[in-house]
Structures are given as C-alpha cells and as structure tokens.
Design a protein that fits this description.
Number of strands: 9
Distance between the termini: 36 Å
Strand order of the largest sheet: 3-2-1-4-5-9-8
Number of domains: 1
CATH architecture: 3-Layer(aba) Sandwich
CATH superfamily: Vaccinia Virus protein VP39
Shape: globular
CATH topology: Rossmann fold
Order of helices and strands: HHEHEHEEHEEEHEE
Length: 214
C-alpha cells in the first residue's frame, strides 16, 4: 500500500478528467450547510477537486478560493469556472500546511479530503491548520468517509487504512488511499484540534462536523 502524499497526488492527477465527469453536483450536506451561513468576505474549499463546492462558495462570498494537491483536478476546476461563469482562485497546496495567513478565512468546507492524508499526525495537523486560518466566530464543514458506510463491516472506536480502486474507461483500476474513520475516532481527532465542534452527524456514510476555531 503506497500511502505517501505524493502517491495520492499522482493518483488524482491520473484520474482527474474521468473523476471530474462523475462529480458534477454538489453534496446536499454542503448545500445545506452553506444555506445556513451568512455571506462571507473570503471562503475556502480545502480539497476542492473539480470545484463543484467552490462554485457554491463563490455565490456566498466576495472571494472564493479552491485548494487542492492535484494539478490535474485544479485544471478541471478552472475549466468548470470558465464554463459555468463563476469567479474563484484555484491554488495548489497542502491541507496540512495551508498557504494562507491566520484569521483570513470567513467560511470553509473541507470535505472528502481529510481521509486521504496518510498519517494521523497529518490529519490532526490539517485540522489545526483549518483552525489557524479561520477568523474568530467563523464556521467550516469538515467531512470524512466513515465505517458507518454500508460498504464496511467494522466495529470499534478506531478506523482503518485501505485502498479503494477507481475504474477508468476501458477497465483499468487505479488504487486510492483512504483512512476510513470510525465516528468516535473522528470526534477524538476534532477534540484534539484547535477547532470546537458546533454540530456533528453521520450522513450518507460520512462523518460531518460543523466547526469553529477555539
């Protein structure tokens, strides 16, 4: 199992075009979260992929930024912004070391990305980074794939690492690293971070938490 961050980046660069075609629509949980938030000056989409959630943030904020490690996915996101006529900046970066100043983000989504960081220390560091860049009193939505998903038969308070294949047109499979969070483990990692949980839930097999900086 190649669990390096470089391997994750290379994987998503390789599957970017096909992956983007299957990710046209925003998640309902993200739509619901953003509908409940006030307009913001600067909004951030951590692990933006093809920009489907950055598009929602662009409607909610004066300035929207999408960040991803994959240059292939960033290219897809820029194409989406052009085609759908929304304004956003897309930057290459590391979720565990965000290239933004402290207290500079008023609203954020960090969905379906935390579980791709290969080590627990990195995952916790990324949560602290989110707390660092958020302005006081602001809100963010964090999600990760969970053992509560129907795909898994797993008990206990700790998650596990696995590889999940992506199938390209023609049948080639490309393995992707995931850390599948147990709900209790997700809560522990959030509690260990500089974020305060406002609300958490399980939805569609994912752990979700609305958080604010301490």
């Amino acid at each position: 199992m190649d669990r390096s961050r470089q391997a994750v980046k290379d994987t998503y660069d390789r599957i970017a075009a096909h992956f983007s075609k299957t990710r046209e629509y925003a998640w309902p949980e993200v739509e619901s979260f953003l509908d409940s938030q006030l307009a913001a000056r600067t909004a951030l989409d951590v692990g933006c992929g093809n920009g489907r959630h950055t598009e929602l943030l662009a409607r909610k904020a004066d300035r929207a930024v999408g960040l991803d490690a994959s240059t292939g996915l960033l290219s897809e996101a820029r194409q989406r912004a052009t085609a759908r006529e929304f304004e956003a900046a897309f930057v290459a970066g590391d979720a565990a070391s965000l290239p933004f100043t402290a207290d500079s983000i008023d609203l954020a989504v960090y969905v379906a990305t935390l579980h791709h960081l290969p080590e627990r220390e990195l995952r916790r560091a990324s949560l602290d980074e989110l707390a660092r860049v958020l302005t006081p009193g602001s809100r963010a939505l964090v999600s990760a794939w969970s053992t509560a998903h129907d795909s898994f038969d797993h008990e206990g308070d700790e998650g596990f690492d696995t590889m999940v294949d992506w199938t390209l047109p023609g049948g080639e499979t490309v393995p992707r690293f995931y850390h599948i969070y147990a709900p209790a483990e997700f809560e522990v990692d959030l509690a260990a971070s500089r974020l305060r949980v406002v609300k958490n839930e399980i939805s569609s097999g994912n752990c979700y938490a609305v958080v604010t900086p301490e």
